[in-house]
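User: structure tokens for this one?
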Amino acid sequence: MYEHLDPKADISEVIDQGHIAIDKPSLAPKVSFSLPGPKVQECLAREERYGPRCNDRPYPFIADRRIGRYIYDLDDNYFLDFSAGLGADSMGNDPRIQQIIVEQAGKIIHSTGLDHGHEYYGALCEKLSEISPGNGTRRTFFSNSGTEAIECAAKIATYHTGRQRFLAFYRGFHGRSTGSLSFTASHPKQQEGFCTSYDVTHIAYPDTYRNTGLDSLEKLEQELFCQHAPSAYAGIVFEPMQGEGGYRVPPTWFMRQMESLCKNHGILLIADEVQTGMGRTGKIFCSDHYNINPDIIITAKGLGNGTALGATIMKEEVASWSDGSHGSTNGGNPIACRMALELIDRLQNHGLLNHINSVGNHIQKRMRELQACHSSIGDVRGKGLMIGIELVKDKHTKAVAQELRDRFVYRAFENGLLLFPCGPSTFRILPPLTITKDEADVGLDIIDHTLTEVEKEL
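Assistant:
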């Protein structure tokens, strides 16, 4: 289905029963106003006056509607989306997605595992057990987000092991609530002035571009375990490919060595697949790339296709808590569960995984061709449709180029392409999973043109 997907295959002429006409965009984005346009300015002014002050956006954009892999702003400019709502918008809003939402809203909108339940709750638990790495039954707790899923994982890890300490990695991002923030170490401003809940020791994550952090597990056993015995640690929380930290891809041997370390010391292996899960890296879970079997897997973002859904997936023996010891009022909402079941069906039965790998390989090939033409492209890395491009001041010194990266991301926005930064000087290519090669080429042409512009300026 997806290998030969027409660029406009999921763009509907008519939306639902209201027969609202929607113009199909051309492949090229359209920016008619000097950005931001007047309606966006009005909306931003309202947010500036009444908003929370903590939202940090790389450019002034207010979304109005999505058509396929394009997003319109309030002033009717439309942009090619290489951001997918920070990975949450897996499939967009094609007719089948709209049909599911309308159909379910006509039946019941709210019912979760904490009150009366619904048929899709157990069905999704069963499906996640089926598709998770390893053998044996897994049990799933549903929440509203990735940060809640991390909180759940930490809570069950301490309960199950009777231990209180954790290990995590520098530049890892696991959320901003007081518990999940204990594990996050991607930027100082996320922790400065706030309290955290857990005792977490951070170690270096592998950086194969600079050949650093590759010995962190050896140092852990030689040095850190001298301070606290391995029996003090409940779990190690890790991303099988770092997201906010710069899309860093660890070597397979490192992941397997970490799994062995955990098994040897009774430490739970806790994989944060909030961004990497549900097909994003070309396999349903990124852990499958390394043939590892985490004790707990956390996923969210793309799982609910833009609806609020987090999942903590535990091995049967780890889910040792009792009735009433944890709960979520809205976790496992019926609409969100149906979104997740639809996504899994497309990944398993409709060729979406093959499509992700095909388009992802195409993007990486083209970006490596551009790397030879641009002095600022230091590294191209990633898996599937989770691709990081690290910009540097000099390819020999590999000095980070944050100012250039930030200017590039903003200028790409002005040229009609939505991107997001990550890490010190990396930008991410994170489109909806249904993006076509033709659409990807449009975005890559904009990247090429925009990099040429900003390289001349700095």
